[in-house]
From TrEMBL:
Composition skew (Basic and acidic residues), residue ranges: 274-284
Membrane topology, as annotated: Multi-pass membrane protein
Transmembrane segments: 74-94, 101-122, 192-216, 300-318, 338-354, 366-386, 392-413, 425-451, 471-492
Annotated GO MF terms: transmembrane transporter activity
Organism the protein comes from: Paramecium sonneborni
UniProt KW keywords: Membrane, Transmembrane, Transmembrane helix, Transport
Region (Disordered): 232-284
Entry superkingdom: Eukaryota
Major facilitator superfamily (MFS) profile domain residues: 33-495
Keyword Ribonucleoprotein: no
Record flagged with keyword Membrane: yes
Protein name in the entry: Major facilitator superfamily (MFS) profile domain-containing protein
InterPro entries hit by this protein: MFS, MFS_dom, MFSD1, Sugar_transporter_CS
Amino acid sequence: MLRSSSFLGGYSRSMSKNRLRPRVLSYRHTKLRYLALFFACMIMIGDAYCFDNPMALQSEIKDQYGVDQFQFNLLYTVYSLPNIVLPFFGGVLIDKIGARTAILLFSTIIMIGQLVCVWGAYNLSFWTLITGRVIFGMGSESLNVSQNSIMAIWFKDQEMSLAIGLCISIPKIGNALNSLLSPQIYSKYQSLAAPMIVGVGTLIYSFICGIALIYMDYKSEQREKQNQMLLNKNDENHRSQSELSASVKKSIKDEDCDSPDLGRSPEIFATPQHQEEEQNEHEVKEEINFKDIAKLSGTFWILIIICMLTEALFVPFLDNGNELLQERFGMTAEEAGLFLIIPYLVASGSTPFIGNMADKLGRRSLLIIVTSFIFLITHILFIFRICTSVCFLITIPLTILGLCFGFYASVVIPSVPFVVKSQLVGTAFGLTGVFQNTALALFPMITGMIFNQFKHDENGEENEERGYVYQSFFFIGMSVLLVIIAILLMFVDKNGERKLSQRGKGFAGKRKVDYVSVHEVTDIPADKKISINYDADQRI
C-alpha cells in the first residue's frame, strides 16, 4: 500500500483509502480510557474499606470502649464534619497543585488518618480513634474530588453517567470486603487493631493504583501536547496560504486527485470547534464560586435535596447494619458481615447497566421517582422481623437496598450537570458535596439519639431491637419525604426546560472530528473534507 509521509501535523494518508490517520492519538480517545477508569475506581477501594471499619466492629467497639450508640455514630459524624467546609476550598487547592499531585497528597493524608486509628484501637483510646477519623475524612473526600477531576477530562462528553456511576459504586467492593473480613479477623486475633492494619494494606494497594493513574494521565497529556504542537505547526503553514493557493489551484485544475503534487501539499488543520474543545478540556473544577450560587435554578436546589436524602438513606443506615442484623435477626457478627456484602456488590454490579439505561433512555426525573419508591419499599421491609435466625429472606431487602444505591450512583448524581449551565458545573458539584456531607454528619447523630431514646421498653429494661425498630420508622419517614420531593422535581422540570428528560450519549459511538483541507480555506470549491473516525482509526 502506498503511503505519503509528508503530511503536516503528524498525519499519514492511505492513498488507496484516501483517509487521514493521526499518528499520535490521546489515550482518552482509545479503549485505554477504561483502564484509567479502573485505576480511578481502585484508588477509592482502600478508602471505602477503612471508612466502614467501625460498622463491621460496632458491637466490639461499643463493648471495649464503653460507648453508647450516639457516641459510636460520632465516628461517622466527625468524618463528615470537615467535608461540610472543605468543598469551599478543596477545589481551589486541587486547581493550584493539579489533580495528579492532589491524589498523592490526599492518599497520604488518608494513610496517616488510618494509622492514627490503628494506634487508637491498639491503646483503646476512643478520642485518638476520633482524631484519626477526622484526619481520614479530610483526605478521603478531597481524594474523591481529585478522582472526579481526572475522570471528567477522560470521559468528557462520552459515557459520563457510566463513568461517574462506576467511580461511585465500584469502591463499594471495599465496603463489602471490610464487612466480610473485619469480623473474622477480629474473631481470630481478638484485637480491634488487627482489622484496621489490614485496612492500611488496602490503602497501599490503592496508592499504587493512584500512581498508575497518574502515569497514564501524564502520558496522555504529553500526547495531547504533541498533537497541539503539530496543529500549531499547521497553523503557521496556513499563514503562507497565499503562496500555497496558487499551487493548489493549479493541481485542482489537473483533476488528478492521486497526483504526487497533491500528496506533497496536504496541509491539514483542525476546525475551530475541535481547537475549542482542546482548550476547554481542563475547565471542569469541583469548587464553589459564591457569585454563581444565585444563578442556580430551582430545579437544581430540589435535586440537591434529593441527593442529600438518598445518600442519608443508604450510608447512615448501613453504619449500624452489622449490629442491626445481630439484634433483629439473630445473627453473629461474622454472619451479619457476610450478609452485608450483598448491598455493596449489588450496587457495584448494577451500576453499569443502570447507567447505560439512563444514558440511552433519558427521562431522569421519572427514574429518580423510581429510585425514591425503591428506597421506601426497602425500609418498610426492614420493619418486619422476617426471620429470627440466618435465612434467605433477609437477602431480599438487602438486595433491593443495593439496587437503590445503583440508581443513586447512575441516575441521581449524574443528573446534576443536566440542570446547570456548563460553567456552573463545578459550583454545583461543590454544593452537592456540602449537602451530602451535611446529611452524613447529621443523620448518624439523629439515629443515635433515636436509638438511645427508645431502646428501653415500658418496664425500663434495655431492648436494643426496639431501638432499631424506631430507627427504621425514621428512615421510612425520610423515604416518604424523598418520594414527595422527587415528584415535585418531575413537575418543576416538566413545566420548565425539561432538562432531566434529555437523552444522554450512552456508550460512545463513532465520534468524528472534521478536518478540512487547504482547498476549503482558500475559497476553492472543495470536496476534500475528511472525517477521522477514532473508533476505526485508533493508533496508539
